[in-house]
Amino acid sequence: MAVSDRKPYSPSMEKSCSFLIEFDKGAPALANEIKEALEGSDVSAKIDALKKAIMLLHNGETIPQLFITIIRYVLTSEDHTIQKLLLLYLEIVDKTDAKGRLLPEMILICQNLRNNLQHPNEYIRGVTLRFLCRLSETELIEPLIPSVLQCLEHRHPFVRRNAVLAIMSIYKLPGGEHLMPDAPEAIERFLASEQDASAKRNAFLMLFTCAQDRAVSYLLSHVEAVPDWGESIQMVVLDLIRKVCRSKPREKGRYITIIISLLNVPSTAVIYECAGTLVSLSSAPTAIRAAATTYCQLLQSQSDHNVKLIVLDRLSELKTSHQDIMVDLIMDVLRALSSPNLDIRRKTLDIVLELITPRNIDEVVLALKKEVMKTQSGELEKNGEYRQMLVQAIHSCAIKFPEVASTVVHLLMDFLGDNNVASAIDVVVFVREIIETNPKLRVSIITRLLDTFYQIRSARVCSCALWIISEYCLSLSEVESGISTIKQCLGELPFYTVSEESGESASADSSSKAPSVVTVSSRRPAVLADGTYATQSAASETAVLGPILVQGSLAAPGNLRSMLLNGDFFLGAVVACTLSKLVLRLEEVQPNVVEVNKANAGALLIMVSMIQLGQSTFLVHPIDNDSYDRIVLCIRLLCNTGDEMRKIWLQSCRQSFTKMLADKQFREMEEMKAKAQISHAQPDDLIDFYHLKSRKGMSQLELEDEVQDDLKRATGEFTKDADDANKLNRILQLTGFSDPVYAEAYVTVHHYDIVLDVTVINRTKETLQNLCLELATMGDLKLVERPQNYTLAPESSKQIRANIKVSSTETGVIFGNIVYETSNVLERTVVVLNDIHIDIMDYISPATCADVAFRNMWAEFEWENKVAVNTVIQDEKEFLNHIIKSTNMKCLTAPSALDGECGFLAANLYAKSVFGEDALVNISIEKQADGKLSGYIRIRSKTQGIALSLGDKITLKQKGGS
């Protein structure tokens, strides 16, 4: 058959192969061209022809006419590349006929393989032995067994190590124990005399896999020598220990001593595996402390960022179950902050913040202060982000342990004028909370804030700092200093002047300041508010739009003035409220009425000037209505003050802030209680009194392990994973009950991969040959392994495992079919499987973030999915709780903000995926007159997949369905 007449591609046509081959189907080679090249004498042409034949064969073409040609012209070649390609060709070519019998031509192949196994060149012997590892035809292998056993005594280690692997693969075949009944004994003798590390590793692996008792006996007889073995065999030893201890937990005491001895070997891979094995096998404090110490050493010694992240994940797991031990190693974990990677630093701080106790708080805060001071050097690009993380960490420490606030608050206040706005906002929020929760620090914080206020360059930081000044300046000197500081930062009034030619009257002090203004001869017409024309000088316009030009250079106006001239009138409204509160408080603490009236008049002048500036025609962005109304309200307040208004402005605002902090603390306490998993033992659980056991021959480690096991049984920790109902929910039916082949899958979702354990049952009375489970994926899913062919006896079953990699949080679909042949019918039968939909809820989990961070992410993320509310639920809070439960998200809106019945509800939800992706949801609903709910649910994320998938999930679930 010509290659051009090929059948359409089908996954069932593919052959299993140990190499991944990329094949360009655009220009296929003809069979006669390949045949001519193979018959020629050109070695390079033969190599190219063999590659083309392998690719065609691998993609479903049979090309039977090439087999004899290859035997005649290729089999006898001495070229190593040709021999390697020949073995690859023989691996994937059909070696049996339709009835499963070995082809007669394979006798020639068998003779060639025997000659290669006796070849004087060690490379030919080695690759031939590796080829035997991939053969499953016992008729082809049986004549070669004596030659394989002879290779165990070859002088070259490359041949010996591959001979061991070949013996292991032959022994594992169906009926392999009869082909080589003495294989374990031969390998054990070989292991006793072998010196090559790789060959010893393969021999020990063979015993571990095929004769576990012999491997255990060999290990226990060489306990003292295990630390001196090579890295590869030590890894197999750890695998053996894990397997033995799971089947015989009572014997793990003598194996743990081997693991602890391996903690001092030079191989970091072995050390890491030892620590993980210790944690999985023992809960004794000595073992956990040794594992945690090992992880901390790896954290310092390894330079690779990925390794550090993996080690931090292991430490985080230890922190969850063995917090008391991890507390003692908190300073060792903190050393990971020396890494320049922000992800490593963030994970380190997350671990450390949950390990803080009154004993180590001083050391931790001192270390964090040193790291903050290091960020002032400006050597690294992301110093601002790192400083923000440190500020948030110190903030958390100060909230948990208020006594340390005095040691850090003044240091952090130096960063109020930081160029990184997010970091400065975190600092001012921290100061605002500390000054309320630590009254003893109020005077020092206010003094420091007034001294550094002029350094602030962010409007949001200024707004928060002004609120602090207005609420916590209580004494006469503080109030006067606050008013004076604000006036200095606002600069001289008025905020702008217009020349005499404009038709407007100039400000009172403009003539006296005229020499300082650079006069520019260029003029242009301007349209006034009444529609008349006037000429405006360039110097006057410069004074309106920015700082005043003094002899060609920028003067240094106050920070508040610069922001106001840029059109930030929300800040102007905050300034007006701050001045109003300070003047009202001045009336209480200042007995001199003249001074009070003077301050009142000055504040009114500033407010009127801001309104005048906002209503001028020279600003690109005039004052908005909300800011205008707020400033006018402050003017009216200072002109006519009542006792009720004074109480609202001077007391109610601070009381509201105090209540907000109390609600925040209450929510944090509730979250901590929710994290504390309270589990109890079942009524019929076994109680094991270790005090009554014989302690002869038991080490201290084993005694500790017994204690910890009893504690776990008492608290029910062993029963947490035994959720049979949850397991049943993950079983999916793939075929119908009337299909000749029944299949169902148990889906296990890990962080980055999905494991499908498919049970296939032959419901017919015939033997099914070449049965193959063919799977394909849609979305960001990738099938890891190629399917294998199986032979299924009548009314028997087979467990098939498939691994699928997940690369993003997006709903994916797994589909496929089961293909098989019967002995009576040569055609292949196809059974189509039901689709498996991967739920996005398996990859996102509730998380928390600050309101500022939520707003920043909401503004930055470009993907939005807007879902209209369509539900039969008529209660707003019930609908909110239903969405939270359905989407596995956390509500960031405080419960106090959701109290009451007003017919409206707005809440923010947040979750984080295992891939580090953020999912933001805003719910805005309104109750209509007929009792139904209306509104929108808006989803935002950085990637399109999570926005669409979460939107589909909400659309499906919001009606109240399961």
Automatic annotation (TrEMBL):
Membrane topology of this protein: Peripheral membrane protein
UniProt entry keywords in alphabetical sequence: Cytoplasm, Cytoplasmic vesicle, ER-Golgi transport, Golgi apparatus, Membrane, Protein transport, Repeat, Transport
GO cellular component term, pick one: COPI vesicle coat
Limits of the Coatomer beta subunit appendage platform domain: 827-954
Origin: domain of life: Eukaryota
Localization per Swiss-Prot or TrEMBL: Cytoplasm; Golgi apparatus membrane; Cytoplasmic vesicle, COPI-coated vesicle membrane
Pfam families in the cross-refs: Adaptin_N, Coatamer_beta_C, Coatomer_b_Cpla
Any single GO BP term: intra-Golgi vesicle-mediated transport
GO MF annotation terms: structural molecule activity
Domain called Clathrin/coatomer adaptor adaptin-like N-terminal: residue spans: 32-482
Keyword Protein transport: yes
All residue ranges annotated as the Coatomer beta subunit C-terminal domain in the record: 683-821
InterPro entries found in the cross-reference section: ARM-like (IPR011989), ARM-type_fold (IPR016024), Clathrin/coatomer_adapt-like_N (IPR002553), Coatomer_bsu_C (IPR011710), COPB1 (IPR016460), COPB1_appendage_platform_dom (IPR029446)
Subunit structure: Oligomeric complex that consists of at least the alpha, beta, beta', gamma, delta, epsilon and zeta subunits.
Function: The coatomer is a cytosolic protein complex that binds to dilysine motifs and reversibly associates with Golgi non-clathrin-coated vesicles, which further mediate biosynthetic protein transport from the ER, via the Golgi up to the trans Golgi network. Coatomer complex is required for budding from Golgi membranes, and is essential for the retrograde Golgi-to-ER transport of dilysine-tagged proteins.
Protein name (database record): Coatomer subunit beta
